[in-house]
Task: structure prediction
Amino acid sequence: MTSLAIDIGNTSMKYAVFNNQSMIHDGRIMGHDVEQLAYQVEEYHPTHAIVCTTASLTEEQQTTLRQITKQTMFLSHTTPIPIRNLYKTPETLGMDRLAAAVGAYMQVKSNVLIIDMGTAITYDFVDNEGNYRGGNIAPGMQMRLKALHDYTARLPLVKAEGAHPHLGEDTETAIRCGVIDGIRYEIEGYLRQFFLKYHNLSVFFTGGDELYFEDEIKKRIFADKLLVLKGLNEILSYNLK
Result:
């Protein structure tokens, strides 16, 4: 079976083609040109598709997505999934977070913490029994940099790229180090607490922003930027069975 997983965000679309559980092609398209997406995957002749979207799509865009394959599923909080969702308000849970949780748990089948470094930083946990227990949401790197500029009178808007001394040597490096090191210490704090509380814990790191971690921490993290797409394919396969 050749299937297609589509993750539509606010500014771009990520997609992957699978032959059963093996990913054979993936890509990213800026914006929401679903006709371009259809063209990119046409040669693979996918028979089924699953769509996860945080963007508002027009009826025309949804129709185009449905026409790519014989059967297209739009992921929602009512879609059956191979883990148990214990979130108290499942209708408010981002479907990309849920898909990432599925993608991580199905790889290790043990306690798993998923850290997604996107516009926001999300922390999601699935236990040994396959129960999605919930997670936390914090501002992402760009959001923090922008907030320091927008909510103060004199602080400049600083880019994440650039000099990064141990301590800020001027306002620019003080902001950059404060934001980036603050995120790193935040994540390291989560890791310490989770490793103390849960045995056989695996940690998956996904999303666009990358941070430097000490070697001892890096050894315990699986980096997987395609985690949401893999989770979507797992959900699609589960429903087809």
